[in-house]
Amino acid sequence: MSKRKNRAKIVAQMRLASSRKPYYFQVYLWNHIDDLKAYFEVDDDTLAMTCFEPWYVDSDTGQVYINPKLGEIHYARDAWNVNVAAHEVQHAIIHRMRLIWPPAHLIMLDEYADAEEEIAYETGNWVEKVHSFLWEHDPPKDDSGKPYQRQDFGLPKYTSEVRYPKSGVKLVKKTKKESKHGASE
């Protein structure tokens, strides 16, 4: 049996409900970035962390069993800005699309535009709720009366390699003719 880790340095938490009940993510705010890193045993440039709950697919029936708690998002005081908050929410949204309606592979199809809207609204809602939660529990430290600018952690340095999926689906490049006739880019 593994030893339970200490979460005593979490200063606030909230439930981030999905529009598809009963699913949600639990959001945590740690007192300091070093506390978050110690908990996850990472020693790098990590500023936040999104973790997913396991799910189970019955190999006989194909039935998927999903925990209502889809995962956790962890932030730390003085180690977040809107970019960091939205980045972790995006991981959560992608995981949401793996498990519950609407699935990611349908979002790209024109006939599922309503599903795209659902995900877009969910993303905006979650970013707003997380940002408000973080702002409430880790307010600005500047009393100058000027608009507060949180630390800029710089542009991400990660760019993924362009490659074709194992499924055989090909990336399609628009022709100049399609682009000139108002097709969306």
Description:
This protein has 185 residues and is an alpha+beta fold. It has one domain (10-141). It is built from 5 helices and 6 strands. The chain has helices at residues 33-40, 82-99, 104-107, 113-137, 176-180; strands spanning 10-17, 24-30, 49-52, 55-57, 64-66, 69-76. Strands 1-2-6-3 form a 4-stranded mixed β-sheet, with helices on both faces. Strands 4-5 form a two-stranded antiparallel sheet. The model has no long low-confidence stretch (mean pLDDT 85).
Query: What's the total number of strands?
Result: 6
Residue runs with pLDDT of under 50 for 5 or more positions:
none
Give the overall average pLDDT: 85
State the end-to-end distance.
Answer: 53 Å
* Order of strands, widest sheet: 1-2-6-3
Largest sheet: 4 strands, mixed
Shape: globular
Gyration radius, in Å:
20 Å
Note the quaternary state here.
single chain
Number of domains: 1
Roughly what percent helix?
Answer: 25-40%
Structural class determined from secondary elements: alpha+beta
Order of helices and strands, N to C? EEHEEEEHHHH
How much of the sequence lies in strands comes to 15-25%
Query: With helices defined by DSSP (H or I, 4 residues minimum), what is the helix count?
Result: 5
